[in-house]
């Protein structure tokens, strides 16, 4: 951690089972501490100030904590119940493990000392967990650690589980995970990493995998499954009653798709040299990762190909239904983020087929070009993407369709989806 003074620091203490204490300390007094996202009121409900003189207040898309008398302060402390919570467009602050311990997402703790809180600055965090191991930034230390959380943050592991060195990654797996799911996982993630490394070259690091499960009943009977990727990490959490049954209730291909999708994000980040994309253009990275997953699966066998084709058809139908009321460019703002996955999958697969028809290496060529440009300092943006697609030789008819899907009105976008959908179907057919 840098010795340079920071305006804000955080001390996390795992003081009791299922409870975390979070103390913010400020170098100078402020009248409020500001958070980028409101998270549907989660913090006001669960983050309990030790001092009753503090309150939570919503401000725009974010929120702030302040004293009820308006006086300035230099520290504020919360007790927080460790539980999973499904949040809009955001990773959960905690992913509990069935035998105790949890992942803690540092990004949800980042804050600003002044409004507007457009981009929280670096947050030095100390973690105190007596009798447990703290895992962060690829290292594991006994009882305590400290680091600086930046950008979208990272996951901190607090618990007693030991990591397992697997094929191509390091894993901490909840012992409560069903045996069949664990066996599938042991095969699925290494294969996804190997398949993508054969196309884009090996990762420059050994990623961490966290899989947790918590069958504690949720309020209102909610059940959730969430997975995601943060720098050098893949994580997955199953939550709510009957979580074990839900893990193994379907054929294993959905787990294969999940791990291929998340592995694709690791390659996007590693090969481009940065975190990718904004929510507004998430079709680029989320649809792109789904397309990378689909194309790895169709190469594995007939059953996997059938699964990928079915996912493609379901995505196209969902994209059409969503575009009937919401342009893709407005999907994130209108809480319809799934459209980026659904429509983006069709767009990328269509581009893959169009480029392969032109004698190129399809999606792989477009990805390699985009990664190289972003690594050289160019933006991860639609304009850069379309420029590269044109230089690679994407047909004018498909280019028009994809641009219309990305930014056109709903009526024109549905027509464009029909054009892209036919090409996307051919992308997954046997060669």
What is the CA-based Rg, rounded?
Answer: 22 Å
| Content-based structural category | alpha+beta
List the helices and strands in order. EEEHEEEEEEEEEEEHEEEHHHHHHHHH
In terms of DSSP E residues, the strand content is 25-35%
Low-confidence stretches: none
Shape: globular
Distance between the termini: 52 Å
Oligomer: single chain
Number of helices: 11
Helix residue percentage = 25-40%
| DSSP strand count | 17
Let me know the largest β-sheet. 9 strands, mixed
Average pLDDT level: 91
Describe the structure.
- The protein has 431 residues and is an alpha+beta fold.
- The protein is built from eleven helices and 17 strands.
- The strands form three sheets. Strands 1, 2, 4, 7, 8, 9, 10, 11 and 12 form a nine-stranded mixed sheet that branches. A five-stranded mixed sheet has the order 13-14-15-17-16.
- The mean pLDDT is 91.
């Amino acid at each position: 951690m840098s010795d340079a003074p920071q305006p804000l620091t955080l001390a996390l203490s795992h003081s009791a089972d299922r409870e975390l204490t979070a103390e913010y300390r400020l170098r100078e007094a402020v009248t409020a501490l500001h958070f980028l996202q409101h998270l549907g009121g989660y913090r006001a409900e669960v983050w309990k100030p030790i001092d009753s003189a503090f309150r939570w207040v919503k401000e725009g898309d974010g929120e702030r904590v302040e004293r009820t008398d308006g006086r300035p302060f230099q520290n504020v402390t919360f007790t927080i119940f460790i539980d999973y919570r499904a949040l809009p467009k955001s990773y959960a602050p905690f992913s509990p493990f069935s035998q105790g311990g949890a992942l803690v997402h540092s990004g949800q703790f980042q804050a600003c000392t002044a409004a507007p809180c457009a981009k929280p600055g670096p947050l030095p965090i100390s973690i105190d967990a007596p009798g447990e191991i703290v895992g962060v930034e690829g290292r594991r230390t006994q009882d305590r650690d400290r680091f600086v959380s930046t950008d979208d943050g990272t996951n901190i592991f607090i618990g007693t589980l030991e990591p397992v060195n697997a094929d191509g990654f390091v894993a901490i797996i909840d012992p409560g995970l069903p045996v069949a799911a664990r066996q599938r996982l042991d095969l699925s993630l290494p294969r996804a990493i190997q398949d993508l490394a054969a196309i884009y070259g090996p990762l420059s690091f050994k990623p961490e995998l966290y899989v947790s499960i918590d069958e504690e009943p949720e309020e209102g009977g909610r059940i959730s499954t969430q997975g995601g990727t943060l720098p050098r990490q893949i994580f997955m959490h199953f939550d709510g009653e009957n979580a074990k049954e839900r893990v193994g209730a379907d054929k294993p291909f959905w787990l294969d798709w999940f791990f291929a999708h998340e592995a694709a994000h690791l390659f996007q980040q590693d090969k481009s040299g940065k975190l990718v994309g904004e929510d507004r253009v998430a079709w680029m990275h989320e649809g792109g990762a789904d397309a990378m997953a689909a194309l790895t699966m169709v190469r594995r066998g007939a059953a996997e190909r059938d699964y990928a084709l079915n996912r493609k058809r379901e995505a196209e139908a969902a994209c059409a239904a969503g575009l009937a009321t919401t342009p893709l460019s407005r999907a994130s703002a209108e809480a319809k983020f799934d459209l980026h996955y659904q429509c983006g999958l069709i767009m990328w697969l269509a581009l893959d087929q169009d480029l392969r028809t032109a004698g190129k290496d399809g999606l792989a060529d477009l990805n390699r070009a985009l990664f190289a440009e972003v690594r050289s300092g160019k933006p991860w943006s639609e304009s850069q993407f379309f420029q590269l697609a044109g230089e690679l030789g994407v047909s004018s008819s498909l280019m028009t369709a994809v641009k219309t899907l990305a930014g056109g009105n709903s009526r024109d976008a549905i027509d464009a989806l029909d054009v892209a959908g036919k090409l996307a179907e051919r992308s997954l057919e046997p060669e």
